[in-house]
Amino acid sequence: MLPYYAGAGPAARPLGAYDFIYWHILHKAAQRGLRIFDFGRSKLGTGAFAFKKNWGFTPQPIFHEYQLKSGQTIPDINPLNPKYRLFIAGWKRLPLLIANTLGPLIARDLG
């Protein structure tokens, strides 16, 4: 089972909707005989990481291989990198229409 994303409106949070959604997904997966549940990756120290760990999952490291040009280091492209703090804060203040227009244009070059 690979439920990488679930969403609900702000009013759902105090009702425990996210816990119910994930419980329901886990329940259905178990009924189908599935025994591996991949909650997706989250950065240590984030709310998403804490939420997933609270469900009893044991974090597993993900290993990557990089091929770099001579003299280069692996870039720290990470939303927790302090270098991006101002950009992220500014992005959060953009009107939704502008963010939704620019987002796909920027995101296509991030991978």
Which features would summarize this protein structure in a list?
40% helix; mainly alpha
How would you describe what is shown here?
This protein has 111 residues and is mainly α. It is built from four helices and no strands. The chain is extended. It starts with 16 loop residues before the first helix and ends with a helix.
Give the secondary structure arrangement, pairings included.
Blueprint: H1 17-31, H2 47-54, H3 85-93, H4 96-107
Major sheet: none
Order of helices and strands: HHHH
Please work out how many helical segments DSSP would assign.
4
Overall geometry: extended
Secondary-structure-based class equals mainly alpha
Low-confidence spans: none
Structural Rg: 18 Å
* Oligomeric description of these chains: single chain
Average pLDDT over all residues: 85
Number of strands: 0
In whole angstroms, how far apart are the ends?
24 Å
